[in-house]
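User: I'm putting together notes for a lab meeting next week and I want to include a structural view of one of the chains we've been expressing. I don't have a solved structure, so I'd like a prediction I can at least talk through. The sequence is below, exactly as it appears in our construct file.
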Amino acid sequence: MDPEFSKAFNLALKYLARRSKTIKEMERYLTGKHIPSQVIEGVIDRLITAKYLDDRAFSVQFIENRIRFKPKSTYALGYELRQKGVPPLLADELLAGYDDTILARKAVDSKKGQWHHLDLETSRKKLMNHLRYRGFDHSACQAAWQYFKEEKNILS
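Assistant: Thanks for the context. Below is the predicted structure for the 156-residue chain, given as structure tokens.
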């Protein structure tokens, strides 16, 4: 085995040790380490064959993780995936099954306790800013606001 290939492959495995990566992230990393492009292609082919690199599996895991711990709009999730090098068609396909209204409610659920004691106008401002920052459009924000008001009335 070529020593340059071995070095590049070991670098790639160390880079993958923390979390899974996209093919594009791996290309950027190895390019930044001044590895020749033909070696990078070989390393990436080997990683794909060994199932260490898989953009679809990475994307599914990334979306599920984000929705569980830091809900964002499908637009924002798609943007993040494209930034990581996931092909736009794949990102759109995987995000097609998600509804922004439901994601907005999830984003609000984590903050309900912090905002419950506030008056309605202050709560509304905080909720809208929180959701807009996460990429939700006006209709999803409005739906989440209605949900929050109903929850607040039930708990009052």
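A couple of points you could mention at the meeting. The chain has a mean pLDDT of 92. The chain has three domains: 3-49, 55-95, 100-155.

User: Perfect, that's what I needed.
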